[in-house]
Amino acid sequence: MSAAIWDQWNENQIPRFPREKVVQFVLSNFTTPVAPGTWALDLGCGSGADALFLMERGFNVTGVDGSSIGLANTQALVAQMPGTLNVQQACLSQFEVPAKTYACAISVGVLDAAGIDEARIAVPRLVDALRPGGKALLIFAGEGDFRIAGVPELSLHGYSRREVESLIVLEYGVSAWIDTCTTTFQNNVTRQIDWIVTIAKR
Q1: Count of domains in the chain?
Q2: What is the mean pLDDT of the chain?
Q3: Residue 32 sits in a domain of what CATH number?
Q4: In what helix (H) or strand (E) does residue 139 lie, and over which residues does it extend?
């Protein structure tokens, strides 16, 4: 997908708060504050609401996004925060970060935007970036989600169960939990269907 589309999105769709599932994941899995020098990876950081939350919990953050406007918004949002923010402009299949570095990695609303071919490259790379004991949270749209047809300009891909399973290589020392979350609107007429994938590296 064109970076110009996400530049426009980040000009007009700036979230003010971190995603609820990200908050739950971080508060359930990490002490507050985390140990000094602990790094988190936000793959598809957009305009930085989740990155700000991570930095508030004590993480240093690497924010990766295809949108230069999103990255600029992220930098401005966290400018007064202690800690370190590194940003990288890259599409999902081309980001480069050090292996075995990150205690925490999140990617929310990105795999569906990038599509399965990019995701098959990116997810193993994200897992490789986790240090021993690190955990990752991936959230993306499933088949039947209203956004697939309802927001055609984003060209989102709704993943089947088989496709999700194909993304996760359960090599030695890696565990994964694959769940779904369905939210309904308008008396169950509209359905938002998200995959919630949690990965742990021993």
Answers
A1: 1
A2: 92
A3: 3.40.50.150
A4: strand 130-141
